[in-house]
Amino acid sequence: MIRGLRSGLLALVLALPQALPAQDLAELPLADLQAQADAGGTAAQIALGQRHHDGAGVVQNFAVAAEWYARAAEAGNAEAQNRLGRYYHTGLGVAADPAQARRWLRAAADQGAPEHLHDLAAVLEETAADDAALAEAAALYGQAAEAGHTRSAVSLGMLYQNGRGVAQDFARARALYEGPAAAGDARAQNNLGLLYVRGHGVPQDYDRAAQLFAGAAEQGLRTAMTNLGVMYENGFGVPQSDAEAARLYRLGGAGETREAATFVYDPRLAPPPSEPQEIAALRDAARTGDPVAAFQMGWLLVHREPPGPADWQEAAALFAANAEKGHPASMANLALLYIRGTGVPQDYVLAQMWLALAGSAGFEAALPLGLGLRERMTPDQINEAQARAEARWPGAQDTQ
Fold first, then answer.
1. Is there a contact between 191 and 154 (Cβ–Cβ < 8 Å)?
2. Which fold would CATH assign to domain 276-392?
3. What pLDDT, on a 0 to 100 scale, did the predictor assign at position 397?
4. Is CATH 1.10.1040.10 what the domain over 169-260 is classified as, yes or no?
5. Which residues of the chain have pLDDT under 70?
6. What are the domain boundaries of the chain?
7. What is the pTM (predicted TM-score) of this model?
8. I need a surface site. Which of 245, 266, 279, 306 has the fewest CB within 10 A?
């Protein structure tokens, strides 16, 4: 039985149009969208799956999204087949199953969309157990690249550069990289830079390589940051600078940008007070349970220079009390404390649960934080966090 269906909706099906354009489905009330999806509308099923995937108006839940995608996939919809295959590949929302992942990704790819050809190729390349799988991946990348799919051209170039699934051919790799690199593709810029550094298929050119690494690094590609750091350390194509090399190594290393995530303020509120007497009155109000005072006091505590253990613990207690009352900004800040393990024991599952709830409540600042955190978590942890979030979602009892 698909989760999230409301009782009595089938009676509404005949009163609803059986198919609506995607832009109309995006605006359709949740109950109406569920009715269309339950009636077998594949576009509605995909739209409903997307809402659960994104946490748009519902708590983010990959398991529920997977169930809706599965219904549309069984009906032969290529987009749903692709999304379901990616879920099986990652283990998000469903138990990881390589055979099922390939089954659904191949079913989608067989319908010819370049993006779906690319996704099947990427999984075959990642999980390749033999040269035949790599050769198939290369062929699929080639089909997608011929149709203008940039990422496939770059991925195929990497296979030629490394001689995986195809005979090593630096000239072919260069030809595949040049167009995407000129258009600003970071992976293509980085890989083309490596060809110029090594003189593979092109005359060695450190200046050109440094320019390409810099272009990719500016877009946040960490591998390119590290490669550019090597150039600065050695003075290849750039002025020698140990300081700049060290900075780039840090950026390209263990995730400095993730750790730099900062606490977020509720934009609906006026700034917190700054005078000692006002802060004392704010703390008193916070202790009585005033939600605005509790949030602002928590905000002031985490921004002390520097906060002490007691400050972290008090802030965590204030944010937690507010989070239990449904305050999205408090949820996001409590999640950051769980990520850092300050004021509370480090717990990625609880952090992801609160970020999912904050995002579902419309607090946009929670979305990038949740995405960054998921990169550190196992699929089982993510699925557990989403199950906990759904159990807490205010509308859960109405959508079971």
1. yes
2. 1.25.40
3. 34
4. no
5. 1-23, 254-261, 394-400
6. 1-111, 169-260, 276-392
7. 0.78
8. 306
